[in-house]
Amino acid sequence: MSTFASDTSKRSLKNWIIALSILLLGLIIAHLGISLFLLSELGTDTFTVFIQGLARTFNLTVGTFHVIVLCILLVIMLLTTKGYVKPGTILCAFCGGPIIDFFTWLLGDIVNADSILPWRIVAMILGYPLACPL
Which segments cross the bilayer (predicted)? Predict the structure, then answer.
């Protein structure tokens, strides 16, 4: 069993691989939920609404703008925090957006604004526990 302490200086390569794999799995699950929210077009969390608005304004995908905004936040964190940016932070910044775009592409023909309302509601209900776990 791996320990996930805030001091990662003594973490072995094996523990880094395990920790980052678990993080990536969590990102995939959470961003599947966000994609279902977006595809249902019935609402989403405030951060994603912000990203969605910027993406529509600049005619880019939600995933692309997700990466842009998180990279800006990453730079701010690098300038204002000491040692807080670690590999997991970078993984989150660069992988979340492509995951959203992938699931949007994969599921876009199944769930979209033209889908019947009950199907969109099901997508949103399925997305909630994925994107907003306890």
Answer: 16-38, 58-78, 90-108
Euclidean distance between CA atoms 22 and 134, whole angstroms: 17
Q: Is the pTM of this model over 0.70?
A: yes
- Cα 25 → chain centroid: 11
Of the two residues 101 and 131, the one the predictor is more confident about is: 101
Q: Cβ atoms within 10 A of the Cβ of 6, count? A: 7
What are 116's two structure tokens?
């019947």
φ/ψ of residue 97, rounded to 5: -60, -50
For residues 120 and 42, the answer to whether their CB atoms sit within 8 Å is yes
pLDDT tens per residue across span 97-116: 999 999 999 999 999 999 99
- Backbone angles phi and psi of 63, in degrees to 5: -60, -40
Tell me the pLDDT band of 7, cut-offs 50, 70 and 90.
low
Break the chain into its structural domains and give their ranges: 13-131
